[in-house]
Specification:
The complex is a heterodimer of chains A (812) and B (337). Chain A has 22 helices and 38 strands. Chain A has 812 residues and is of the alpha+beta class. A seven-stranded mixed sheet of chain B has the order 1-5-6-10-9-8-7, sandwiched between helices. In chain B, strands 2-4-3 form a three-stranded antiparallel sheet. The chains are: A alpha+beta (812), B alpha+beta (337). At the A-B interface, helix 9, helix 12, helix 14, helix 15 and strand 26 of A face helix 4, strand 1, strand 2, strand 3 and strand 5 of B.
Chain lengths: 812, 337
């Protein structure tokens, strides 16, 4: 919301600076996002009078002027100008030596993006010039700011402009624009008047309301009937008939106000509707009364397929969700958004039917979005217009018609209202207000603040009765009053306390949350960095991962309004994101790395029926480059199994995105809970990767109940564990796991089996491999003495017997 | 005989002085013992009466030499150590060997720190669903369909009533439906908004806090946030409340902290104001309590919500939110602890 300082001063007498006002507004809930000084580019430009003119000896279009800029700046300044409209006795802006004006030359603007042109004394074709006489363009203003500003040549100022006066004061640039951030609960402050009301309240100054008076002349015109068929979408509709409207030009004060808000003057009637929107926040519309068929205004939902052409000559096909203003036959306006071309104000318009209404903000928004059509009015309606202001806005417009003399206000007024206009009364407890705040605001402060905010407070003991202003639809309970009071009283009065009344509660993480954190830390100590990826990915990721058409991962929840196709699907597995991380890192020269992410995947249910998808926590691992291989990733997974007391088994995996020979499913209690392995080389090739990437993903939700990171101490064995190494000749087809299984289960004292070498070659028969294991024998506490070499030999013999019997394995 | 002994004494003593290693000394000792054995074996050839005298001489000789060997052993050990020291001398300026662990992501670090701070004040941690219904994300939070506050957030929709939660506030409702006051919860997690530019990420994290009990006041909110600010930033960090608007709180406040960079004097980080906007908060709106069947005349409460990325960026001096989601290891490894 943009509010000029000068305009606010119309309603409140202020003797503070713009910055001081900005601070005040900030303190009561209106953050001034930007405070712009209109004349910031203009410096040392003053009113001068051309006293004498002589032709330039070396130029046929330049003239040498003697300019009087008053005592302070010089009575006889010599300035050369090329402007054709200069004349003796002209008062015009004079940029002195070392001054700045607005850069108006487009070629120079490119070099000088701040748009400031510096003026210094110098010689023009040999003649000294001590400054520059300026055009309106060089001050950055148009005709609406100052009449004649758009003339090609010097700005011809009024004859009463005082010599030497700062030009910013003369042309209205000595002003500030407050760009105020208005919160969504205060649509009443989306206008100058609303901000002015707040300014008056926070400064504790009287508010000077604008003039709403007008004289209603009896009209002979046939009445225009108003019928609101959709009161839910149009709670109030005020219409007023104005006769004999005239064209012409709006007065300078109004044009300037509009100009400060960036709106060009068009005609008095249009200017008044724009002015009322800015000042009162009430969108107005003017129909050419002659175009209203059957002298009827009907506010109704459009029929399916009904068409309207709006003022900007765009045609729209409507649905029953759209609200239209119709005459007896056809739509004449898209309610709250734009008038119809068929009833617009023309030069020939004699009589006007003015509209000031409230349209439901949600409906205006929906229609505006659906049709892709918007206007200042529609954006105002979307924020919320109150029924109270409908009438006041109309009165203000009628007053201005009288003041500008651009029409005759009649006594034909139609007001169809389905909501109460009686101000709401509310009684609240002062004690409760103070209890919510935690401090005691003095009663007289409470009354003073609410008085200033037009709540007409009456205090009777603890009972505080207020009348809620008609424009404050947001207030409906005592906490609202508490907020009004504290924002004016000042938040600095709030003293920090520490839950003086509250009960003690136990805090902290749940077991599940603690385990997740533990899991992350286990991975961290394994050299993994934690990653965070977006929860959405691209359908292309499915193809990249070579997923079959019927792969379950392809069944993903789709975002209806994604930012882009790349971010349109909710993740059903995390591996593509991790692959993305690996690729990005490798391309950036991070040759080696380990990352993990713990995040939800989303398993769709009946999304269209509004059923929430199942959110399952997954863990994804990524390892790339360096000496990393399959077993580094397996090691990390084994480490997790150790810490959480799980025993995983592994089977060959068949995943389209993993190397068929270098990938495994992770199995827990007969259930596959994840997989890991080398990225399929064909995918690596298509991505141009020169490093191997390993990906792993575990369904944490599936194992959540089984994670047990509790520590249970076991008594230390009385005797030390003993290690024996065995080199075995095994058939090539046997897996490590099969051998380990026999090694572990042939003797109860074997507590650990670790493969340390695999050999194939000369000394091993073809089709066989040599595998060397370290076996750890740990005596339990029932063992009375340490293992002797002889007892160990006995165990080993038994183990070897089992190996030979079960797997045909020989000692090497 | 005596000559033999003296000759051996002279020979061994001389050789001993040359020994520099334990090994050489040991070998010399073996040699000495062998020679001595030879001498002693000659004893049987002596006359019986000469034997005791000779025995005494040999014993003295043996004792003397053993003392010498022991003394030399101390010297040799010292020499050997000196040599070892010299040989094993290293360039201590060479780099140390480091076993590198990974690191948790700064979002997790900040989340953990926040949980630590508030868990100590009695807050439990609740994680609600990331895909929410319209009801929990908006309606129950006093933000009906036509509410202009819905425009403040660009929402990703999955179906008419299904959306990616735009705020962790949705968790408030789920907790209040389930538990009776006193309630103190933190609700951290991913949130989503359809915003993607230099300063916005379509996904980010929030941490919601909610307290509902009898007699909770705005002063309590101020006090709790002051404690948070001191612990999260510095002990001199100050808290400023200023009026704002959220549909689910009334009164609503924007909470600024004094700038940790300049201490409130004004700098580039705080754009010269001395304050940094950190979170939104307020007293829980009566309608929200009513929606959860909590009697608003008996209970009051406050809620606050902050962006975890924002806190992380302030705390670590990260200037671009996008780097948090690129997962570049050169970024991540800076958060080792």
């Amino acid at each position: 919301m943009k509010a000029p300082f000068s305009w606010l001063k119309d309603y409140v007498d202020m003797d503070i600076t713009a910055q001081e006002l900005a601070d005040k507004l900030f303190s009561c809930g209106f953050e001034v996002e930007e405070l712009v000084y209109l004349g910031e580019k203009i410096n040392r430009v003053v009113v001068g009078e051309v006293k004498a003119l002589t032709p330039h000896p070396d130029s046929d279009h330049m003239q040498i002027c003697v300019v009087d800029c008053g005592e302070e700046y010089g009575r006889e300044l010599q300035i050369v100008t090329g402007a054709p409209n200069v004349y003796v006795g002209m008062k015009t802006p004079c940029a002195l030596d070392n001054s700045t004006v607005v850069e108006s030359n487009p070629a120079m603007l490119e070099k000088n993006p701040d748009g400031i042109k510096k003026i210094k004394k110098g010689k023009l074709r040999g003649v000294e010039s001590f400054g520059m006489l300026c055009s309106g363009e060089e001050l950055g203003i148009n005709d609406d700011f100052y009449p004649g500003a758009e003339v090609n040549g010097l700005l011809d100022l009024a004859k009463d402009a005082p010599l030497g006066e700062d030009i910013k004061k003369i042309v209205g640039l000595d002003d500030w624009i407050f760009d105020i951030s208005v919160t969504a609960n205060r649509p009443d402050c989306q206008c100058i008047l609303g901000i002015a009301r707040e300014v008056a309240a926070v400064l504790n100054k009287p508010f000077k309301a604008p003039d709403f008076s007008y004289t209603a002349h009896k009209t002979m015109a046939a009445p225009v009937d108003v019928e609101v068929q959709a009161p839910d979408l149009c709670p109030r509709y005020v219409g007023h008939y104005v006769e004999n409207v005239t064209g012409g030009v709006s007065p300078a004060w109004m044009r300037k106000r509009l100009a400060l808000s960036g709106i060009r003057s068009i005609s008095p009637i249009v200017d008044i509707t724009n002015f009322v929107l800015l000042e009162m926040g009430q969108p107005m519309h003017a129909f050419d009364a002659e175009d209203i068929g059957d002298r009827k205004i009907i506010v109704r939902r459009a029929t399916q397929g009904e068409k309207i052409v709006t003022l900007d000559e765009k045609e729209f096909t409507l649905t029953t969700d759209n609200l239209v203003i119709c005459d007896g036959k056809k739509p004449v306006a898209l309610a709250g958004i734009m008038g119809g071309l068929n009833s617009e104000i023309k030069n020939s318009t004699k009589n006007v039917f003015f509209e000031s209404a409230k349209f439901a903000r949600d409906n205006v928004r929906k229609t505006s979005r659906a049709l892709g059509q918007s206007s200042d009015s529609s954006s105002r309606f979307e924020k919320g217009v109150d029924a109270y202001t409908n009438g006041l806005g109309m009165d203000r417009a009628l007053h201005l018609i009288e003041e500008l003399g651009c029409g005759v206000v009649t006594d034909m007024r139609k007001d169809v209202c389905s909501v109460s206009l009686v101000p709401r009364k509310m009684t609240a407890s002062v004690a409760k207000i103070n209890a919510l705040l935690g401090i005691t605001v003095p009663n007289e402060e409470i009354c003073s603040i609410l008085e200033r905010l037009n709540f007409k407070p009456e205090m009777d003991g603890d009972a505080l009765t207020v009348e809620i202003p008609g424009y404050r639809d947001d207030v409906d309970g005592y906490p609202d009053l508490a907020e009004e009071i504290i924002r004016m009283y000042g938040y600095e009065h709030i003293e920090p306390t520490f839950l003086d009344c509250a009960k003690v509660t136990g805090g902290g993480l749940t077991d599940e949350q603690k385990k997740e954190l533990h899991l992350k830390n286990v991975l961290r100590t394994q050299g993994f960095f934690e990653a965070y990826n977006y929860s959405f990915y691209s359908p292309k990721d499915f193809d990249l991962m070579k997923l079959s058409a019927d792969a379950t991962e392809r069944n993903a929840v789709r975002i209806l309004n994604p930012i882009s196709e790349e971010l349109s699907l909710m993740r059903t597995f995390l591996a593509p994101s991790m692959l993305g991380n690996a690729v990005r890192n490798i391309r950036r020269g991070n040759d080696e790395g380990r990352e993990f992410e713990v995040a939800n995947v989303y398993v769709p249910k009946n999304t269209q029926a509004g059923e929430q998808p199942e959110e399952r926590k997954h863990l994804v691992l990524g390892v790339w480059g360096g000496k990393n291989d399959f077993f580094d990733m397996k090691g990390a997974i084994e480490r997790l199994a150790d810490v959480f007391h799980l025993s995983f088994t592994y089977e060959r995996a068949e995943k389209t995105y993993l190397h068929p020979g270098v990938s495994a499913n992770v199995i827990l209690d007969g259930e596959t809970i994840g997989c890991f392995g080398e990225l399929d080389p064909s995918i690596a090739l298509s991505l141009g990767l020169d490093k191997k990437v390993y990906l792993g993903e575990l369904d944490l939700a599936a194992i959540a109940d089984k994670l047990d990171d509790g520590v249970r101490y076991k008594n230390l064995p009385k005797f030390p564990a003993v290690k024996r190494d065995l080199a075995l000749i095994a058939d090539e087809k046997l897996t490590c796991a099969e051998i380990e299984d026999v090694l572990l289960h042939s003797c109860k004292y074997v507590t650990n089996v670790k493969l340390f070498d695999v050999y194939r070659g000369g000394q091993v028969p073809v089709g066989k491999k040599s595998m060397a294991f370290t076996l750890t024998f740990t005596p339990d506490n029932n063992v009375e003495k340490a293992f002797t070499p002889e007892t160990l030999d006995g165990y080993v013999k038994k183990i070897l017997g089992n190996l030979k019997f079960k797997l045909g394995i020989e000692l090497r | 005989m005596k000559e033999k002994i003296e000759a051996l004494r002279a020979e061994i003593t001389a050789a001993m002085a040359q020994t520099e290693t334990g090994r050489a000394l040991y070998e010399l000792k073996v040699k000495f013992q062998t020679e001595l054995k030879g001498i002693m074996s000659g004893m049987k050839d002596l006359a019986k009466e000469d034997r005791p005298t000779f025995g005494k001489v040999v014993n003295e000789f043996k004792q003397d030499m053993e003392e010498k060997f022991e003394a030399r052993a101390v010297v040799v050990r010292q020499m050997e150590m000196e040599k070892k020291y010299a040989e094993e001398r290293i360039d201590i300026t060479m780099p140390g060997k480091v076993y590198k662990a990974g690191a948790l992501h700064p979002i997790t670090l900040v989340k953990n720190e926040l949980i630590d701070i508030f868990a100590g004040m009695g807050f439990k941690v609740f994680e609600g669903p990331e895909i929410e219904t319209d009801y929990y994300n908006f309606t129950a939070l006093n933000t009906p369909k036509d509410h202009p506050a819905r425009d403040m957030q660009d929402t990703f929709y999955l179906a008419e009533n299904l959306l990616l939660r735009t705020q962790t506030s949705a968790g408030q409702i789920r907790v209040m439906e389930k538990d009776a006051p006193p309630i103190k919860i933190l609700s951290p997690g991913r949130v989503f908004r359809s915003d993607d530019d230099a300063t916005h990420s379509p996904m980010f994290h929030q941490m919601e806090g909610l307290v509902v009990d009898k007699g909770i006041t705005l002063c309590d909110l101020q006090g709790m946030l002051a404690e948070f600010a001191r612990k999260m930033f510095t002990s001199s960090t100050k808290v400023r409340l200023r009026p704002s608007y959220f549909p689910f709180t009334e009164p609503s406040v924007e909470v600024d902290l004094s700038c940790s960079e300049c201490g409130g004097k004004g700098c580039r980080l705080c754009k010269g104001t001395g304050w940094i906007e950190v979170l939104g908060a307020g007293m829980v709106n009566r309608r929200v309590l009513e929606n959860c069947n909590v009697d608003p005349d008996e209970y009051t409460g406050f809620a606050f919500g902050m962006g975890i990325e924002r806190i992380a960026m302030l705390k670590y001096g990260i200037n671009n939110i996008k780097t948090l989601f690129e997962n570049d290891t050169r970024f991540l490894e800076q958060f080792e602890d």
